[in-house]
Design brief:
77% of the residues lie in helices and 0% in strands. It has 254 residues and is mainly α. 44% of the residues are buried.
């Protein structure tokens, strides 16, 4: 555990030197939240035909839980896999092993870093929204934190898998950015899900981000803990860890 904490401290300082981290984790979610909430306001929107948008709540309240999840996704899909792929491409992981430091220690250290940075980014989103739009407070803060930790762990595992699969850092960054924008547009944090065509809605349902968004929205809006969404996130977490272990074992055997 001491080794993991020491690695987390060192790797965290290296991570913060990358401008893309500050932009995607600390700046972009706040900017997008301001734009979306500024466009839609916080009035409950009902069409003439009776269709209700944003789950029947104001857009600002709807987007609060969603943009907490966006911070987690930005780190897990873009920063973490790019950083790990860079280490593997440059032979840093082999040097760690030669120094009797297991790759798993490095991976757990990056998971810890991701949770901490995601917490800072999510706090910025919430504080900014409170100062500008004054949304409702979360109905279940304890469950919100639990959902946030589950989402962070899931995207950390998913990002780690991308990092060990991608052949180069450039490939990892490209795939990560593409996945992030697809999930952003279809995962419940961009356009209102009600306006999406059925095919796009189905793609959105297949993304980890939508399940994280719905889980966090439920704890924020007071609709309760969504065991189905939580179970899917746990499944993605376990599958990502299992596949990561398999890939690392196969590469070590070469």
């Amino acid at each position: 555990m001491r080794m993991v904490l020491r690695l987390a401290w060192l790797e965290g300082k290296l991570l913060l030197r990358e401008p893309i981290t500050l932009v995607f984790v600390l700046v972009l979610p706040v900017v997008m939240m301001i734009v979306m909430c500024g466009v839609f306001g916080n009035e409950v929107e009902v069409e003439d035909d009776g269709q209700v948008f944003f789950m029947g709540v104001g857009a600002t309240d709807y987007y609060m839980g969603a943009y907490v999840a966006v911070v987690v996704a930005a780190l897990g899909l873009i920063n973490l896999p790019t950083h790990l792929a860079t280490y593997r491409e440059r032979g840093v992981l082999r040097r760690f092993e030669a120094s009797s430091i297991s790759r798993w220690s490095l991976l757990w250290a990056h998971t810890l870093i991701m949770i901490v940075l995601s917490g800072i980014g999510a706090t910025l989103v919430v504080v900014t929204a409170k100062l500008i739009y004054d949304p409702t407070d979360p109905a279940s803060p304890g469950l919100l934190i639990l959902g946030f930790l589950l989402a962070a762990a899931t995207f950390a595992a998913f990002g780690t898998l991308l990092g060990v699969l991608m052949p180069t850092a450039r490939a990892a960054q490209g795939i990560g950015i593409m996945l992030w924008f697809v999930m952003f547009m279809l995962g419940g944090v961009g356009p209102p899900p009600e306006v999406l065509p059925d095919a796009m809605g189905a793609v959105g349902e297949a993304t980890p981000l939508l399940h994280a968004v719905r889980l966090l929205q439920g704890t924020w809006l007071g609709t309760g803990w969504d065991w189905g969404r939580a179970g899917i996130l746990v499944g993605i977490l376990v599958a990502s860890l299992g596949l990561t272990a398999l890939v690392m074992r196969l590469r070590s055997a070469r």
